[in-house]
Amino acid sequence: MEDTQMDDGNAALETPAPDVFVPPSIHRATTLSGESYNHFSPVPPSLLPNTTTTATTTTSSESSSVPCVLGVDEAGRGPVLGPMVYGVFYLPLTLSDALLKETPAHRFDDSKVLTPGVRSSLMRTLCTSGSALHESCGWAVSCLSARDIGANMQRPAAAAPYNLNAQALDATIALIRGVLERGVNVREIYVDTVGPPATHQAKLARVFPNVNITVTKKADSLFPCVSAASVCAKVTRDAALEVLYEGRARRCENGNNGGEGGKEVEKEGMSWGSGYPSDARCVTWLRKNMHPVFGWGSECRFSWGTAKDMLEAKGGVKIEWPADEDDGTSRLTDYFVGGDKDKEADELGNWFGTPAGLEAF
Questions:
Q1: C-alpha distances in Å from residue 96, one per residue of 89, 90, 215
Q2: Of 83, 164, 229, 289, which sits with the fewest C-beta atoms within 10 Å of its C-beta?
Q3: What's the rounded Cα separation, in Å, for the pair 278 and 74?
Q4: Helix (H) or strand (E) segment spanning residue 6
Q5: Are 77 and 194 in contact (CB under 8 A)?
């Protein structure tokens, strides 16, 4: 994939705060294992349908639940290190502007504009019981690990391609579907996109025909619910980077580090910076911590140009795989049957090898 470029100012905004808030969306063991996962916050009781209980049945009506608006945005599409995180954020339609845009205490904006400290503070408020955000809003994230992103993008030619846009669409659908299945009455959905909006919107509309969906570029600057989703995604990615870095540091302390001078680098703090290929700290870290055969750990997207070029041209060991000479006519039994191939042999009789004659004894 083509690497994403950014200037020094953007790199600073993309770099996690030193004391980043670790939200409940961080599943440490799963993150360190390189697995992808979804996390859904509890749905505020005020957003769930009213239930009617009789002596024999309990029923709920969607029409009696509060109409909600849901925003979708991502964080970490371009970095070579760390996960890409998709986030959704939902709340009552009537509270969207009042709660997210007009309240000074928690005014949301595109997470790429907010400083790392402000993002972290907003997320902490959202996760604090008793706050207005916690009582009226719900959210969810899908963490697509660097390992899975790279593996999917480098599928063999015989397999169906699974590019980043397709992975992003599937993550978006899974999150929206998960919110609907939890009983939230979502009436409107706003999605930020980096691809063709019309194509993305048409695909989502086919999956969710009963919801009014708007897909547009810069939605995180236009719709408060998308801005809030952006913050959920970005803080989760920030915290995930922190967890991945700490895990790498522990491996270094135990002597399990493949890079040159890796232990010295780890003592400098989170020296891989924002994880973007255009961030000099990231490139320096990659160079100093590259294993000549295995490259890096599950924190790296091996399908990115930066990683590929570094492995192929800057010290990585070249591995050549022998060509498959199978003409497609081999049988499984050919690997088991021994003896003279010119003889007509009984396949079942020779299944465990060539029979031994009396001379063998």
A1: 11, 9, 18
A2: 164
A3: 19
A4: none
A5: yes
Which has more pLDDT, 251 or 201?
A: 201
Helix axes 280-288 and 305-313, enclosed angle (nearest 10):
40
CA-only gyration radius of the chain, Å = 26
Element (H, E) at 86: strand 84-92
pLDDT reading at 42 higher than 90: yes
Spatial CA neighbour of 71 closest among 55, 52, 87, 84? 87
Crossing angle of the two packed helices 164-181 and 146-153, in degrees rounded to 10: 130
d(CA 246, CA 244): 6
* 224-248 mean pLDDT: 93
CA distance 86 to 14: 16
Q: How far is CA 271 from CA 68, 241, 283, in A?
A: 41, 11, 10
For 351-360, b/e burial (b = at least 16 CB within 10 A) is eeeeeeeeee
For residues 346 and 342, give the distance between their C-alpha atoms in angstroms, rounded to a whole number.
12
The answer to whether the beta carbons of residues 131 and 17 sit under 8 Å apart is no
Distance separating alpha carbons of residues 210 and 176, to the nearest angstrom? 13
The whole model's pTM is what? Answer: 0.79
Hey, is 266 helix, strand or coil? helix
Mean pLDDT, residues 185-202: 92
What mean pLDDT comes out for the span 225-231? 95
Contact call for residues 227 and 100 (beta carbons, < 8 A): yes
> Is residue 292 within 8 Å of residue 316, measured between CB atoms?
yes
What does the pLDDT read at residue 74?
95
Confidence check: pLDDT of 224 > 60: yes
Q: Assign residue 9 a region: left if phi > 0, alpha if psi is -120 to 50, beta otherwise?
A: alpha
